[in-house]
Every structure is written in structure tokens, then in C-alpha cells.
Amino acid sequence: MDHALDRPSDRPPPSAPLRGLEDAFHAMVERSRAEPAPGLAERLDRLARLRTVVADNEERFRQAISADFGHRCAVETNIAETMMVFSEIRHATKHLKSWMAPQRVSTALQFLPARNRLMPQPLGVVGVIAPWNYPLQLTLAPAIGALAAGNRVIIKPSELVPHFSALLKETVAARFDAAELLVTGVEDEVAKAFAHLPFDHLVFTGSTRVGRLVAEAAGRNLTPVTLELGGKSPVIIDASADLEEAAERIAYGKLLNAGQTCIAPDYVLVPERALQAFAEKVRAQMRRMYGTDPANKDYTSVISDRHYARLENLVADAAGRGAKILQPAEPDDPNWKAHRKFPPTLIVGATEDMAVMQEEIFGPVLPVLGYREPADAIAFVNASDRPLALYWFGKDRVARDEVLARTVSGGVTINDCLFHFAQINQPMGGVGASGTGAYHGEWGFRTFSKLKPVFYRSKFNRLADLYPPYGGKIARLEKMMRFMS
Hints:
Blueprint: H1 16-34, H2 40-55, H3 58-69, H4 74-100, E1 103-105, E2 115-122, E3 125-129, H5 137-148, E4 152-156, H6 162-175, E5 181-183, H7 188-194, E6 201-205, H8 208-219, E7 225-228, E8 234-237, H9 243-255, E9 267-271, H10 275-290, H11 305-320, E10 324-326, H12 334-338, E11 345-348, E12 365-371, H13 374-382, E13 389-393, H14 397-406, E14 411-414, E15 435-436, H15 441-447, E16 449-456, H16 472-484
Parallel strand pairs: 3-4, 3-6, 4-5, 6-7, 8-9, 8-13, 9-12, 11-12, 13-14
Antiparallel strand pairs: 1-2, 2-16, 7-15, 10-11
């Protein structure tokens, strides 16, 4: 039966932003196929221009990000965003020549004197769906790896940071041809269509819920994906830990960017006997670092009213279910809400039935739970989805190694929080519900490259003896191959 509504001619025409995205994508694909392997000089030039985009507009980016948040601590933007982008570009620039070189691979004895090589090649066109929480760093870090690998890149920024997104689009367009690096708008139709484009690779950073939708859309084109998701990253305090030291480092890790960090400590497991003392120490550290004035410029705002209300509901639900709420400031002060800053909050004695223990918090709220035996803490972590990060505090090496061996997570920092992310020689990525794939440094170059195996046949090799007609020669060759296998 002919369904008139199924005819392309009867479908509503695409909007101008959507048509622009589709046209730009197809033009980029054509260029990537016509010019598939830019050389070292061209890749270095692209990295240099990207650094210029950031360096020439540092203050504008700081102001744009702060405007989107309501207030973003300038020091946090400098350290956690700008400096990390510069570090990624500097590292890629320094090592790119060696990364691009074909890699020697050993050749099995029976095939000598032939040679094997792995030849890195660009995939083609890489799409980046960027988050809002660290918009500069988490947008450009995967783009740096993709450009270093010789790809062309299209970035879809988050609609929650419109000032930043518009500035990035403007500044990139001033330095790059649209067929090299392109930043889209944040219109709804662009966001919905982006993951459905047949990219050669797609990167998404965001929530697990949206990550599933992105993976499903990409799967229809068999597009490989790197998913940088989140989840509930636990902290385990061992009985051997220095509680004061742990409290200070956890308070910092939790309150950086007001807790709006995918690898922020999500909850803490502490020996029961130390539960209350530890919570008080964390509260004291929070007060020391950020004081009680919501106008404090060191403390970042929550991104939106909706997210603020979500945090309020999490705390109210926990209080209603019997948890003790500790805050270093007076939460009833209307200035907190006026600045859209959520008071640092500890939920002492949180239980599994509370909403705060069932979803990623993504804010300055920290549940603290007690455990009796070290095995109980490990079992608690393993009963949930595998987290993006895990943190362990203590001096007992046997206990530490037991946790490392019996838990699986995207990454681990021992006796601190967050800093495994900043190790440029280590991959950064999740596992299971917290993500798939990895990037940073050479790991990003590999993710966005096809490491193509190449076998170089030698004229002295006896492989021709494998060809029919078979006779006595094949028996001799088979005997030799069995001996060598």
C-alpha cells in the first residue's frame, strides 16, 4: 500500500540549522575521502591554530562560562579547563611524529624474512557531543586527539552553556575551514540529528541515560563510539587512613566545580566507628575552604534552576528517611538560592532506599555510609554498576591491593581524588555503565586512528609452496609449520 506520508516529497523540509549540519557533514566526508591522510606539518598546524583559539580568547572563555553557570570560579576554569587543554596540545605536538610512524610488529618464524607493520591512518570524520560541566576542556580534549590523528571534526556543544557555545563557534570559524573543524549550533533539531549521522567515530560525554540513546542511534550506522559517562564513584576509607587528610582531599574533590564533575566522589564508605567523626572533619574542611558566604567567588554556582531543585529534592528525601544533614552554612539563607549556589551538604547515615543513593548526584551533596568489615565495603561497591572512578584512602597496602583486585572501575586515585584524570600518559575512560573507550594523549590518537596491519611479503619466503597442485612439498611445509607453531 502506498503511504503518502512516507514519501520524501511529503515530509516537511529540514530547518536551516539542520540542513546546514547535513550539508557541512557531507562536505567534510567528501574532503576526508579525497584527502585521507594529512601529513605531520598539516596536523601540527591544526593543533597550533586550536591553541591560538584558546590562548587569544582566554578571558572571553572564562567570562562566557561564568555567565552560563551564573558564577564559575575563574581559578577552576584556568586549572581544570584552559591549562588542561594547553597540556593536551603540547603533549600531542611533542609526540605526534613518533605516534604517526608505522609500528614494527614481530613476524612469526615461518613467515620470515617477511615484515609486519601497524600503519596508523585517520578514520575520517569524528563527531563530538560535548557536555556542559567542563565545556572547554571536555569539548576540546577529544577534538585534539582526533585532529592529531588526522581526522576532521564536528563539535556539537551543550545547549546548557549557550554563551560558551556561541563563542567557541565564532572563534573556531575564524581559524579553521569548515571542512577541517566545525562547531554546530545548539538548536534542538541539530542535537537530535547529530548522533544519527554516519560518523567514522562518535564521542559523547554525559549521563548514562543519554549515553544509551547516543549508542543506539550510532549503532544504526555501525558508528564506533567513545562514551564518557558517569555514575556513582565511591570512596572507601580504610581503617588505616588518616581521617583529617582524607577529609581535606575529599572535600576538595567533591566541591570542585560545585560537585558538577563526572568523576567527583559520589559517596563515602567509612568504618562505622569513625562515621560521625569523619563527617564532622569533612564539614570543617568545607567551611575552611569555602566559608559560609554564598557570594564567595571561589565557589561555583549550579548550572540551572532545574538542577538546583533536583539537589533540594535529594536532600529533602534523605532527611525524610532519617538521615542526618550536615551543612557548614545556613541553608535557609535566601542568598544561596539567589546566587544559585547550593550549600555544601553531607548526608550522614545514608541508606540504599534514598534517592541520593540511586542516581548520580552531580552536585555538592556527599552521602556518608558506615561499614563493619572491609569486605562489606567492597561488596557494596560491586552491587552497583561499575563506576567511572574509585577512590581509596589508607596506609595498609594489603587492604589497598584487595580493593584494586576485587573492584572494576574506569580509573582509580589512591589517597586523593580526581588526579588520575590529569595523567596524560594514562587512558581516561569508563567501563560498563560508566562508559566505553578511552582517550587522552597517545590513547586518544589510537582511538581516532585505524591501526592498519600491513604484511610485507619477502621474495625469499616459501609461501608459494602453499599453492596447488599439492604434492610432497605441502607435506614438508606442513611438517615445518607444525614444528614452528
